[in-house]
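[recover] target loaded
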C-alpha cells in the first residue's frame, strides 16, 4: 500500500519536483548522519575519559558499542569506595517515543547505615498530599523533612540521620540527582540526558555519593546499636 502511494506520488511529479523532493530527503539523511557522527565522536571521548578514570583507581571498565555504525553505546565502570562496591553505568531508556540516556550510580553504604530505612526525594505528589495533611515520616529537621520522603525511620535510623555530618551530604544528594533512593543499605542515584565526559566531570558526579559514604562511616561509634544475640543496646566502638 505504501509503495503504491509512493509510486503514484512520484508519477504525478514533474522532474523539477522530483529533484526538489530528492534534495530534501538527501539533506535530511545528511543532517542525521552528521549528528550521529558527532554523537559517536563524543562517545569515543567518553570512553577514553572513563577508561583513564577507572585505570587510575584500579577499577574495571567496559564499553558496549551501539547497534549501528556511528551510534553511541553504553559505558560501565565497577570498583569500590571505602571498601564497598560501587558501580557507574549508562543505559538507554525509551521515553515519550524517544530514547534517552541515563547515568546511574550504585553504592553499598555498608552496615553502618540501617537497612530498614528507605529514603527517596520528595516529589510533587508528596508535596500535594501534605496540603491535605498526609505526611510522610519526619525526623525533626525541617530541611531534610522538606526534601526527603522517609519510610521505616526507627529511633536508631533517626539518630543516624540527625548525627553530625549527615545533614549536608543528604541535602547535597537531593540537589545533585533528579532521582535517587537508599533502600536495604544501597544508594542508587541517576540523571537523564547527562553523561560525564571528562575526569573532572566524573569526579564531580561521584562527589555527593562519596560525601554521603564518608558521613555514614563517620556515624560509627556515635550511634547505639542493638547487640547481637542479647537484645540489649550497646555502643559500637
Amino acid at each position: 500500500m505504501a509503495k503504491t502511494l509512493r509510486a503514484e506520488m512520484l508519477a504525478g511529479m514533474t522532474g523539477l519536483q522530483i529533484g526538489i523532493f530528492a534534495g530534501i530527503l538527501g539533506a535530511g539523511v545528511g543532517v542525521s548522519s552528521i549528528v550521529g557522527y558527532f554523537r559517536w565522536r563524543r562517545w569515543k571521548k567518553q570512553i577514553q575519559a572513563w577508561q583513564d578514570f577507572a585505570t587510575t583507581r584500579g577499577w574495571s571498565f567496559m564499553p558496549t558499542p551501539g547497534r549501528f555504525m556511528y551510534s553511541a553505546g553504553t559505558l560501565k565502570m565497577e570498583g569500590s569506595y571505602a571498601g564497598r562496591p560501587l558501580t557507574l553505568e549508562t543505559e538507554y531508556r525509551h521515553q515519550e517515543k524517544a530514547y534517552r540516556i541515563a547515568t546511574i550510580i550504585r553504592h553499598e553504604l555498608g552496615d553502618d547505615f540501617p537497612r530498614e530505612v528507605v529514603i527517596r526525594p520528595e516529589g510533587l505528589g508528596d508535596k500535594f498530599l501534605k496540603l491535605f495533611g498526609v505526611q510522610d515520616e519526619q525526623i525533626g529537621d525541617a530541611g531534610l523533612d522538606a526534601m526527603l520522603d522517609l519510610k521505616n525511620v526507627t529511633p536508631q535510623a533517626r539518630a543516624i540521620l540527625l548525627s553530625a555530618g549527615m545533614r549536608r551530604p543528604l541535602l547535597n544528594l537531593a540537589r545533585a540527582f533528579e532521582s535517587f533512593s537508599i533502600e536495604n543499605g544501597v544508594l542508587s542515584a541517576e540523571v537523564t540526558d547527562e553523561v560525564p565526559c571528562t575526569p573532572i566531570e566524573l569526579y564531580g558526579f561521584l562527589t555527593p555519593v562519596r560525601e554521603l559514604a564518608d558521613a555514614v562511616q563517620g556515624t560509627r561509634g556515635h550511634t547505639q546499636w542493638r547487640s547481637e544475640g542479647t537484645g540489649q543496646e550497646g555502643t559500637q566502638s
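[recover] notes: Strands lie at 60-64, 74-81, 84-95, 98-108, 118-121, 148-151, 179-183, 186-192, 224-226, 233-235.
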